[in-house]
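Bug report (template v2)

What were you trying to do?
Predict the complex of my protein with zinc ion.

What happened?
Run completed; filing so the output is reviewed.

Input:
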Amino acid sequence: MQGRSAKQIVGNLTKPRICLSLGFAVLVLCLSAPVALASLDKYFALVVADSPGARQAPGIVRVTYLGVNGFQFEASGHALLVDPYFTRAGLTAVALQQRIQPNEARIAFGLQHIRPHVDAVLVTHAHFDHLLDVPEIMRRTNARLVAGVTAANLTISCGVDHNHCLVVQPGSMRVIGPWRIRVLPATHDRILGWLPFGGTKTQPGSCPTKASDWPLGEPMAFLIEANGKRIYIDSGGTPEVLPPAQIAPVDLAILGVALPDSRKRFRAAVARLRPKYVLPSHQDDFFAPAEHGFAFGKLTDFRAVIRPFQRHEINSHLILLDYFRAWTIP
Ligand SMILES: [Zn+2]
């Protein structure tokens, strides 16, 4: 359209920025609400872990929770990571669009709980709390990336060789070491109807410097199979997209429950997957350092998650994992 005033054009150009700022304001408001943070102590009966010093028998699959939505899976002397994030940038830096970058000391601390060599890092989407530390972790563990095109482009933007990045999409299947990885469709939760940091990155550029530089990209879930165990993992979702029923039953379903959207679809997702064990994930306060121990995030509602299990409406075992304490899937 011709004849638009400069003011109109500037107005249109600044609109996305205003939307983002509003989004941040809402986020800050939600997250600063005074909510009592509970630790896992209250739910100790649900926490599972191998006994200290237990040796890994051959043919097993072991899971270690790394905080946020991060996990290490081990099988036959191999390791696979999903969404490892140790930096845990502070709320102020994230909400106020300050510079965030991988925290070397926290990554070094996190890596003490991970095998020195990792086959691959799987990433469910490209937000900072899933991808920020991945380039550095890949460098230190010699891992490959398995992720959507946006996550791959951001990782390459931060100096990783593109040959180390396998771009996948729902329907993809990859075999890496003992791991058979199927990529499944997923969606991302909204915060009060707002999809946080939406967008994609179609080619590499400069390495991101603030939270909004890590756009959502292509959300995905994974079915990971090794040594006869089947693990489904996502980082949350909405009722509109549920895990495919054809992959059921699984041994372990790891379901993100950070926000109301993912809790709304939680029961339906469990019904689809028919898991032996259900592990709610992404429900810790990821703005606080891991050394402070597990504390529920301010927008989580574990009482709502646990309710259908207490009422015996779900047949699966509900479990919790504490930071860095490995558990062998029975
Ligand atoms: Zn996200």
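What did the reviewer find?
The mean pLDDT is 89. The two ends are 64 Å apart (CA to CA).
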